[in-house]
Amino acid sequence: MAKVFSSIDDSLREFIAKQAMFFVATAPSEGGRVNLSPKGYRDTFAVIDDHTVAYLDLFGSGVETIAHLRDNGRITIMFCSFTRNSRILRLFGTGRVVRPDDAEFDTLRTHFGTEHPGVRMAIVIAVDRIADSCGYAVPYYDLVGERPVLDAHLAVVPEEKFAGRIAGDNGHSIDGLPALDPEHPLPLR
């Protein structure tokens, strides 16, 4: 049933590409809250190479992932098939953030699809463990389509509001860890 893989091979890339959503899990080094976030928009996730993946982080309600990555870098990505073929795939690794004003961001951007408004960062993950499991208890769901609400909302947000969020509610996690910092263009790790 469960299998550990040495790399993200073509069959795993194909499985990842078919998933309409993925989940991101992080946690602080000490105390605090574990964060688990669902992510949508298929074209915001990319396999860069056999041991590197990345996703576009869009402005949302919180900033836990970025704060936890600045704290310790630990991250797990989970894909879960809701189709007739049951499977769960987890990518364990060390993540880092790349801001849109970083030169590396332009290179990363070529791996993603549609332009999405409100891109906050790219999260790049060096994957050190790749494992799947059966997913036999995961229910069947039929995908109706991608929800366009976040793109529609972010498309009308003025740039000043994004800048205000970096200095304001996206400056720290709910546990008080530093997250987005307008004074430091790159994470403090």
Q: Any overview of this molecule?
A:
The protein is of the alpha+beta class. The protein has one domain: Pnp Oxidase, Chain A (Roll). The protein is 21% helix and 31% strand. The protein contains five helices and eight strands. The chain has helices at 10-18, 64-71, 103-109, 149-155, 159-167, and strands spanning 3-5, 22-26, 35-39, 45-49, 52-58, 74-80, 88-98, 119-133. Strands 1, 2, 3, 4, 5, 6, 7 and 8 form an eight-stranded antiparallel β-sheet that branches. β4 (45-49) and β5 (52-58) form a beta hairpin. It is globular. Mean pLDDT is 89; it is low at 185-189.
What is the element string, with H for helices and E for strands?
EHEEEEHEEHEHH
Radius of gyration: 17 Å
Number of DSSP helical runs = 5
Summed up, the domain count is 1
Give me the CATH fold name: Pnp Oxidase, Chain A
- What overall geometry do the principal axes of the alpha carbons give? globular
* Quantity of strands, as a count: 8
CATH superfamily: Electron Transport, Fmn-binding Protein, Chain A
Strand content: 25-35%
Low-confidence blocks of residues: 185-189
Query: Structural class given helices, strands, pairing?
Result: alpha+beta
Termini gap: 37 Å
Query: Level of helix content?
Result: 10-25%
Overall pLDDT level? 89
Instruction: Name the CATH class.
Output: Mainly Beta
- The CATH architecture term is Roll
Describe the biggest sheet? Answer: 8 strands, antiparallel
